[in-house]
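[INFO] parsing input record for J domain-containing protein
[DEBUG] input buffer:
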Amino acid sequence: MEQAAAEGAEEPASSSAFRDVDAHPVPPRRPQQANGKARAEAPAEVDLFGPAPTPAAPEERKFYQSPYRRNAPSSRSAPKPPPPSATRTLVPASASAVQSSTQHKTRGNEAVKLGQYGDAEGHYSAAISCLPEGHILLIPLYNNRALARLKTGEYKAAEADAGTVLTLVEAVGGLDARFGDGGRIQAGDGAGVVDLGEGLLKAWRRRAEALEGREQWAEARRLWEKVSGAGWARAQDRTEAARAAGRCRQMLAPKPAPTAAPPKPKPAAPPKLRPAALISADSARVAELRKAAEDAEAEDAARADLKDTVDARLLAWKKGKEANVRALIASLDTVLWPELGPALKVDMKDLLTPGQVKVKYMKAIGRLHPDKLNASNTTLEQRMIANGVFGTLNEAYNAFVTSGK
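[DEBUG] output buffer:
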């Protein structure tokens, strides 16, 4: 009995939770005092019938995280494929049309190499007529015809051809990077590749040269600046375009007032002749006049025989460009004789400004002036041709000065 009581006295207070609720209560025994360290290390009592204790949060979680994000599975979106390249819309043409156009273009290129720019223009026009409107092969054809027209002094028509090229390039999308072809388009039917970048540069150059020929300096400068700023152009082309733009800026600058020419010295009075000397001079003069009259009669007869041949040659040279002094000067080698024609040959690029036109005009009439040509250095037919060319150039230059172009 005492042993049982002793065993009951040593039962810890926490065992009261397991006693039946109808049993008599047992007065609690005062626990023995222990040192502070022991009390601090004593485990906390656990209520077995209470709610489960909440575990402490981990030490590393020191910030708030939404429950919707806490255990959400990580998902990585798949990379989007690159957008497909855009497709150019090209005007189709039959194989026979492309072949016929190519043949005419080849003939035009051969004529340009021979300097026959009028014939070249006709061949290029025939090549253009073979293709439908808006076809990609029209780009090099219009550029080539613009060059031929520049050589013959048809500046307005050359400007129109270059403008058509710009419209065609824009119609097929230009140099837009969306197409992914670098501006090089396969024409099809064995016609090769059309380079839009090259076609655009040539059109800018042709149009700028034509505008300079018409003395529209502001618009010409704008186009030259486009060529000089084109990143795909060759360094040499950009340098030449920059110089041409500077030339246009100089023409737009105000011109200084002209200075008065110094007065010409008066000619010296001829010496007075004695009467005997006068008689001798008169006799010699009469003989000279008689011989000159005989020579003139013989020359008039020869002129009548040569008139039809000379008129036909002059008409072939000046037909269609009677008032175009630039075209007349640039084609002098086609009407003059071989000894003189090459010396006066001028390229159209040397006749862009009024100053250049004046210099070349003065040089030409200086060589063709009747005082410079006589029976000792030319034939009668050559003098007749030179007189006709001299008169035509004078009329054309007067019209050029009057119009201010």
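[INFO] The longest strand covers residues 184-186.
[INFO] shutting down worker
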